[in-house]
């Protein structure tokens, strides 16, 4: 059942945005997957990989550390395939996501978000430790296993290009595990080499700095989330998935929480109800499209990932009380002409393939 339902999501033209700016931004509606996010693809590919390798046996325990959506996807798929599921996550994850995972049968452990990835209390360390101490358990390792990236190289990327018969000028996307952008970039590099691939980095993340200079420089603490209020994106280390596709990412730019939150409400008013990471992707795609337009591309066509739906954030960005507590009152009232704080987003070109030369494949 899952293999039939996951993927083949529509590529939506974001009409109000496009009309205002004279560009064509297209959103891959991954929130229409059965688990509600792009992570359904990665979760299915990870389970397929560990089943095929013989490491995951009937009735076994699947363990994963996640910002939320991979946990929902794995909980759903484990229920369909007859596995138990353990999920660890940072304490910044929305209550809706935690409740959904538990409703789907997963055991959920909430971990501190203020510790670095090397700390045993970090959510990825906890998933690894539980798997190691439980007979018959598998750590699916979405950060390190390239089955994550392959789901997008063989599925998401081809679907996007097939929906753009006139060609695609750009693709812009944020990174968490790095699997989505790496997989799509790897496919497009071979099938549409003129398409510019651009990382969209949220505030507090260090990946844009890494692409530009080969070093991580970021606001905030070691775990890489810094002061961003978005979930599941932004990182302060080089994952195996991003390293595998990173050489195909030509540039990077930044998008802020405020820009993403404004875009959330603008998209919702146009009938596209998504979460803040999806809205941040749209902001990044818009910035790339405007840059291409200034460079002489007439009505540039740029695609991005609408990674999950807005219902998972009703207690956060879509809550007036939550917004007011964080000084965000009024973000729901702007128009498309007010959405961008910085049209360039600190755009930088990738320094070169040498920034990936020393990576040995670990997460």
Automatic annotation (TrEMBL):
Transmembrane segments: none annotated. Residues 5-308 form the Tryptophan synthase beta chain-like PALP domain. Its cofactor is pyridoxal 5'-phosphate. CDD domains: CBS_like (cd01561). InterPro entries: Cys_Synth/Cystath_Beta-Synth, P-phosphate_BS, TrpB-like_PALP, TrpB-like_PALP_sf. PANTHER family: CYSTATHIONINE BETA-SYNTHASE (PTHR10314). This is Tryptophan synthase beta chain-like PALP domain-containing protein. It comes from Tetraparma gracilis.
